[in-house]
Amino acid sequence: MSIYAFDGFIPVVHESAFVHPKASVTGNVIIGKDVYIGPGAAIRGDWGGIVIEDGCNVQENCTVHMFPGVTVVLEAGAHIGHGAVVHGARIGANALIGMNAVIMDNATVGTGSIVGALCFVPTEMQIPPRSVVVGNPAKIVKEVSDDMLAWKGEGTALYQQLPAQMRASWREVEPLREVPQDRPAQSNALKTWKQTKESR
């Protein structure tokens, strides 16, 4: 793991978490149980603190940082999509931040909310629990339904299982030069939101 002390602070990473070796975790950072930190993620607790509670995931190429003296909190089960930026904000429990979204300083994303891909949440915006938020600047467009929240929970549950799966089977290898005939099929562990709606 790429874990770095800074100014006397050593990151704390629970043994059940998985931090990819190509992620970077620096300074005053606390990472809880069953957390997944993907490659390319930068978790910079140099000027303030970062608390990533149990069951969160911070996917590939995300950035978590802050202005001096601020603590960023990702509450339990928060789901931070590929390429998102969380800067000095608080993300509520079981909230989903879409791919390449930006959450700015002193903003709060309420519990169970869904922030769309490419959304820009400006400084100090307070998003109530279970809100669907889209656009640049961010706009609340509706409430998160029970079905949407259940679907989001299924996706987060996959990420909560991933750290153990990574520790059990992930390793550096030489590539194969051709596809073996007995190459196994992968399971369809999660339907898209559209497929989920159509099946109900």
Automatic annotation (TrEMBL):
<dbReference type="GO" id="GO:0016740">
    <property type="term" value="F:transferase activity"/>
</dbReference>
<keyword id="KW-0808">Transferase</keyword>
<feature type="region of interest" description="Disordered">
    <location>
        <begin position="176"/>
        <end position="200"/>
    </location>
</feature>
<dbReference type="InterPro" id="IPR011004">
    <property type="entry name" value="Trimer_LpxA-like_sf"/>
</dbReference>
<protein>
    <submittedName>
        <fullName>Transferase hexapeptide repeat family protein</fullName>
    </submittedName>
</protein>
<dbReference type="Pfam" id="PF00132">
    <property type="entry name" value="Hexapep"/>
</dbReference>
<dbReference type="InterPro" id="IPR050484">
    <property type="entry name" value="Transf_Hexapept/Carb_Anhydrase"/>
</dbReference>
<dbReference type="InterPro" id="IPR001451">
    <property type="entry name" value="Hexapep"/>
</dbReference>
